[in-house]
Amino acid sequence: GPKAFPAESSFWVGSDGKKLFVAIRSETPPAGIRQRAMPRASNNAAGTSDDNAEIVIIPDMQAEKLKILHSIINNRGALYSQGSTGGAPGPWRGNWQAKGSVKDGFWDFEAAIPLADLDIAPGRMPKEMGIRICRTWTQLAGNLPLQSSWESAKAVFASRDFIPVITWDENAPVVQHLQL
What we know:
The protein has strands spanning about 10-15, 20-25, 50-60, 65-75, 80-85, 90, 95-105, 105-115, 130-135, 145-150, 165. It is an all-beta fold and about 180 residues long.
């Protein structure tokens, strides 16, 4: 039967050498997902109040001036994003392609961003990339926002020391990690 608190999500990350791909699958609350904000050319902070995917990327964990890119995307593709380099905040948008669907009690969300938008040159994938993926729920526990996330422990949200790290190796086999 249905869970009293169905805030579990599955997360996938991959790359084809041109784009970074992120996918999330989660159950939906009985009322479905909240998706009011619509996409627009500029940042849309209203999407932060919808059910959304929140993605923090540190493209190169070894970079001298650490770049932290933060995006929040709802089911319709409404995007709020910001970035910083070396601790100095600055505008960053990223050309995200995103698509979500709700079917049979599940929300499936997929997003892709060109590696060039992360300042990763073709054929120059960094050895380690930090990435935190969260699924924000807006209609559970008295409509307070809650998150399920891809991380081993709750910690400082956008920090080199605590963000989950992916190691890229073109010669490695494809692996599916089912649980942290």
